[in-house]
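Below is how a single chain appears once it has passed through the pipeline. First comes the sequence as given, then the structure the pipeline wrote out for it. We keep one example in the README because the format questions we get most often are answered faster by looking than by reading.
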Amino acid sequence: MKPLRFVLLGVCPLALAAVLRLVNDSVADDRVVYREGPIVLTQGSPIDLDLDQDGVADFRFSVGTLAELPSPGAHSISRPYLDTFAFNRNDYLLNADGRIVLKEAGFKFGPKTKDGKSWGHRDSEVQAIAYASGNTWPGFSGKPPEAYLGVRFVSKGAVHYGWIRFVVPKTYPPAAFPVIADWAYESRPNTLIRAGEKPSKREVSTQTDG
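Resulting structure:
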């Protein structure tokens, strides 16, 4: 299994980090473990994310572009995508059709779900998070556009809930794909966490690669 890798944006990484920090003022909890990026996703270089830093990857993220031919002889249409794979039978928040759903800040990720949603994953394949439509990413909102992925994972034999925030940064030139801005999880087993929730003492770890 590949170790956790962090790729820095080639253009103004400090400016990107500053942009990502502006997005949320959120509820704080001392028992929330928070990590800060940004982690830039590039084609051909999947990122393995170890939420609890125990040396075992919990989720993998990758990006790419699909070329579609709508009809014979027509020009191909490029569709950037963001997808994921869950290690160790970890889960995402899914809708009634089994598709990953993205949420806004403040949404409660926890043991109880409603409106046809459930926790789950696909065992032997990646699972799409979002596809770009023109210059927008459905499921993302705000300035810069952001979206929260709800996750459920096992740490030291116990189930924990967390969030991973993706942002489409307004850099120049524009980023082709969302970046992983930051993430957090509730250190107490089987305890809900709100999207964007951070520790009140702000013991924040900024992850870079030198």
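Residues 1-15, 22-26, 202-210 have pLDDT under 50 and may be disordered.

See the next section for the split statistics.
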